[in-house]
Design goal:
The structure holds 2 protein chains of 2 kinds. By secondary structure, chain A is an all-alpha fold. Helices cover 67% and strands 3% of the residues of chain A. Chain A contains 21 helices and 3 strands. By secondary structure, chain B is an alpha/beta fold. Chain B folds into 2 domains: 215 residues, Response regulator (Rossmann fold, 3-Layer(aba) Sandwich), CATH 3.40.50.2300; 150 residues, Rossmann fold (3-Layer(aba) Sandwich), CATH 3.40.50.2300. A 7-stranded mixed sheet of chain B has the order 7-6-8-9-10-16-17, covered by helices on one side. Chain B has a 5-stranded parallel sheet with strand order 2-1-3-4-5, sandwiched between helices. A 3-stranded antiparallel sheet of chain B has the order 13-14-15, with no helix packed on it. In chain B, a hairpin with a 2-residue loop joins strand 16 and strand 17. Classes of the chains: A mainly alpha, B alpha/beta. At the A-B interface, helix 2, helix 5, helix 15 and helix 18 of A face helix 1, helix 2, helix 3, strand 2 and helix 4 of B.
Chain lengths: 461, 431
């Protein structure tokens, strides 16, 4: 019943992180968030209880996909990838030579709003567009055609997913700790440099480079497991988000760790704005001294948050294995259950960026309407006055908050269902599955509380 | 383009065209530039706009940008400055003092800006101004802070478009003590912003024969206030409040729960509720209370033609909201400062015959020589007096009463009410 309230909230998407003005959070503080949080946590806990009593295969049955049509070979994907690469280069040029204003320059708008908020969410919710939109595979093919050579080196096996994991942490640190990640010229250097570096890696080590050393491809390939639409047995199919986690082959320990870092970093990218965190740093939340004053603490916090998450997750797994009397070792069990964290990470991503999407999406619309700032009106929407009025009006603020909470709660419910289905597959009996994932389920219920508390907390940025 | 930059002369456009566009796009803009061909040089005056695009100042930054764009559009339509078009070079400072100093440096060394302009948040001004002084870049801040007139900055930092907090606060004392009560209790956040109010107002109330019964300093991270209210002395006639931050609405709600209808008179600064609609649910309790306003947000019965013109140019309706979204309330009490500052810059550059960075010192001297600024389109907030020694402008302040969710002006201070003895003479410092 409470869950349906959350779901209703989801339909009315509206929300702001980067542009958060004190007053938005002001209206949030007036909401009965205690009641909402209790309802959200109860919904997740109830799912756990229900699974204990429902017939074993219920969860797995929920994730059965519906085949739609036969998949065709994606012939044009190298062409679209080349187009994507050209776009990256054009955006880098715009970053270097265009407007200095991060909400006018198309580079930061594309990277942080269109790609990081929009396209990552699209990848996780709907379908794997990265197959077409990544800016490396096409140029990689072109390079090998021109040179007539394949990659000269083998990707060193011992590196595993290490470079990709390190790359993702560097990305997270840039996002959360760099003083000016939206500065057009700075971002252009980073984006251009990284694009070249990864293209070089691809040229030297072949496609395995993208799968193990290129963090963005790893991120996108992880999130595609959450998409409603996917391929299975040569057919395009659709199912409940998470069905591809069950349909896909198990992940390696390196990828499992990567998935945990998605959630750990995503969680810190919310925690770092709260009065609580600013209090830990001894800062006045009403007079935030600016990002350059918290570079070190935010890097430390990012590392600490991820370490804590991985440790707690591993402990939950160990405890579950003990309770269920399983002989399974920690590492394979860790890898087995880690993908069940994906829906939580995606839910956090959506919740955290909903407001920013609504505000900065307007700047994107304005930029598309008038890309060269010449007063053009390409979309016929006229002069765009960006508004944040909905963040200062109680009704929309409530709708936004409930949408965010809905994303968090639904993410956790799906995670519980997935973990249960994975456990059942590994341990056979429903009882053992329930026992084995009891600590993990407790962790997820607690994490629901944490996520909703984050949304309700006063923020200083 | 916050507002999709309607301004026809921005670096973004020029840069983007140079980089990305073909001849067609360039040709399309020709008529706009053709206007300036009569001038000796069509090279634009470049104004480095240090804008809080991200960080805690972003909501203010958006309206500062919108006002700035409108002012520049108007100035350019009128032939620019000395016949040259004005170009805004906007750089985000992240509301971050360290980046602020870097931005100032970019204005001077990379973007070839003639001046720096537009900084609002005090800590960013204080972080940036020393660099502007070293680089001898005239730096026009729009921050309200007392740091300019206090003497802590330098010859190149000026605040000619907005009054400072010291003059605002002290000018409230005569009205408050004569009309609302002489026994005042102050509730303020326990950091520099609140301390300024505490110090300036307490002193001013004493001069008026009143008394501050209690200072109630609230820790900045506090989100519930009920436990502080019993500290308000019973004989309090006026409660002076200047809470800011996300818990302001909770403060008002809990104030209502504590006092009910038997409340003292209340006086606050609109800073608490800038960009928030006064008729928002939960703010009904403020009905009948008083606020300082830098410029009346709601259109008044005696609205001047200048206010009308200014509202239309920026795109603000009669309630202080964006014309394109009635829920998008502007930062009306502050943003006029951008408009007025740019008009001061225009006048001073024309007086100084400003031709380029070599005339920066002459520009500073031209501003210092300014005194009376009459109520006009250039100064829609009201007449002002500039003090060349302290680099600070002084002007009328407004007190409004909340009536059915509307801010109704009940008092306009004289400019003299805002004066205080000079604390510095910047003109004696080297140029």
């Amino acid at each position: 019943m409470r869950a349906s309230m959350m779901i209703t909230g989801l339909a009315t998407a509206v929300p702001g992180a980067a542009n958060a003005h004190a007053s938005e959070q002001g209206f949030v503080l007036l909401l009965p968030t205690d009641i909402y949080i209790t309802a959200g946590v109860a919904s997740v806990a109830l799912t756990v209880v229900l699974l204990a009593f429902l017939p074993g295969p219920t969860a797995a049955a929920l994730f059965r996909a519906l085949p739609l049509w036969s998949a065709r070979r994606a012939r044009l994907r190298h062409v679209s990838s080349c187009a994507s690469a050209l776009l990256v280069l054009a955006l880098v040029a715009a970053g270097l030579y265009g407007s200095r204003d991060p909400l006018v320059n198309p580079l930061p708008l594309t990277v942080w709003t269109v790609w990081w908020i929009g396209l990552v969410t699209l990848q996780g919710l709907i379908f794997d567009h990265w197959r077409w939109s990544n800016p490396w595979t096409g140029p990689g093919v072109v390079l090998s055609r021109i040179t007539g050579e394949r990659a000269p080196f083998h990707y060193p096996r011992w590196l595993g997913h290490g470079p990709g994991i390190a790359g993702f942490m560097a990305f997270a640190a840039f996002l959360m700790a760099d003083p000016a990640p939206t500065d057009p010229a700075r971002l252009a250097t980073v984006v251009g440099g990284y694009w070249l570096f990864s293209l070089g890696g691809l040229a030297l080590f072949g496609p395995r480079w993208l799968l193990r050393a290129e963090a963005l491809t790893m991120l996108m390939r992880a999130y595609r497991r959450m998409a409603v639409i996917g391929r299975t047995n040569g057919r395009i199919s659709a199912g409940l988000p998470g069905w591809q986690v069950l349909a896909a082959p198990p992940v390696t320990p390196g990828l499992a760790l990567f998935v945990l870092l998605l959630l750990g970093s995503g969680s810190f990218d919310g925690l770092n704005e709260t009065f609580w965190w600013l209090g830990v740093l001894g800062l006045n939340p009403l007079e935030f001294p600016g990002r350059s004053a918290v570079v070190g603490p935010n890097i430390l916090g990012l590392v600490a948050a991820n370490t804590a998450l991985v440790a707690v997750f591993a402990l939950s797994i160990v405890a579950g294995l003990r309770i269920a009397g399983s002989q399974l070792a920690l590492v394979p069990a860790f890898a087995l259950f880690a993908p069940s964290i994906l829906p939580i990470a995606l839910g956090y991503h959506i919740a955290h960026y909903l407001t920013a999407a609504l505000v900065e999406g307007q700047y994107v619309a304005a930029a598309l309407n008038d890309p060269l700032n010449t007063g053009a009106d390409l979309l016929g929407i006229g002069h765009v006055h960006v508004t944040t009025g909905f963040l200062n009006t109680p009704g929309p603020v409530r709708a936004i908050w409930l949408s965010q909470a809905g994303a968090v709660v639904i993410g956790h419910i799906i995670a519980i269902l997935l973990a249960h289905a994975l456990a059942l597959r590994a341990f056979g009996s429903n009882l053992r599955a329930v026992l084995s994932q009891a600590p993990l389920a407790a962790f997820m219920v607690a994490y629901t509380f944490f996520g909703l508390w984050l949304l309700a907390s006063p923020r200083g940025l | 383009m916050t507002e999709n930059s309607s301004t026809k002369t921005t670096t973004s456009r020029r840069g983007a065209i140079r980089t990305l566009a073909g001849a067609a796009a360039g040709a399309a803009t020709m008529p706009l530039w053709a206007r300036y061909t009569h001038a000796q040089s069509a090279e634009p005056i470049r104004i480095g706009f240090q804008v809080h695009r991200t960080g805690i100042g972003a909501a203010y930054g958006r309206w500062y940008d919108r006002t700035t764009q409108a002012a520049v559009e108007l100035i350019n339509e009128g032939g620019g400055i000395n016949g040259r078009p004005v170009e805004i070079v906007a750089e985000d400072d992240g509301t971050d003092p360290k980046r602020g100093a870097e931005v100032v440096e970019k204005f001077a060394n990379q973007h070839g800006c003639d001046i720096g302009f537009g900084t609002l948040f005090s800590h960013v001004v204080i972080g940036s101004a020393p660099r502007a002084g070293e680089l001898k870049l005239p730096y026009f801040v729009v921050s309200e802070g007392h740091h300019v007139a206090s003497g802590m900055l330098n010859r190149y930092t000026l605040q000619p478009g907005i009054t400072d907090v010291k003059s605002q606060v002290q000018a409230m004392a005569p009205y408050v003590t004569r009309n609302l009560g002489k026994k005042v209790t102050m509730v303020f956040p326990d950091f520099a912003f609140g301390h300024d109010h505490r110090d300036f107002f307490t002193e001013a109330v004493k001069r008026e024969g009143g008394e501050v019964l209690a200072h109630i300093a609230i820790p900045p991270a506090e989100t519930s206030f009920t436990k502080y209210f019993p500290k308000i002395p019973r004989e309090t006639e006026v409660l002076y409040h200047v809470m800011v931050g996300p818990a302001v609405l909770t403060f008002v709600k809990e104030l209502g729960e504590f006092f009910g209808p038997q409340r003292p008179e209340m006086f606050g600064f609109i800073d608490s509720l800038e960009a928030v609609a006064m008729d928002s649910p939960g703010l009904e309790y403020l009905d009948g209370t008083y606020f300082w306003e830098g410029m009346p947000r709601h259109v008044q019965a005696d609205q001047s033609d200048h206010d009308k013109f200014y509202r239309e140019a920026v795109g603000v309706d009669n309630r202080g909201a964006s014309v394109s979204d009635p829920t998008d309330i502007s930062t009306y009490a502050h943003m006029f400062g951008c408009w007025e500052t740019l008009h001061v810059v225009k006048e001073a550059m024309e007086t100084a015959g400003y031709a380029g960075p070599g005339d920066r010192a002459a520009l500073v001297e031209a501003v210092e020589a300014m005194t009376d600024m009459p109520h006009s389109r250039s100064h829609p907030q009201g007449a002002k007096v500039f003090n060349g020694k302290t680099h600070q402008v002084f002007g009328h302040q407004y007190i409004s009463r909340v009536e059915d969710g509307r801010l109704v002006k009940v008092h306009t201070t004289s400019i003299e009410d805002t004066f205080y003895p000079d604390e510095v003479d910047y003109t004696k410092r080297a140029l």
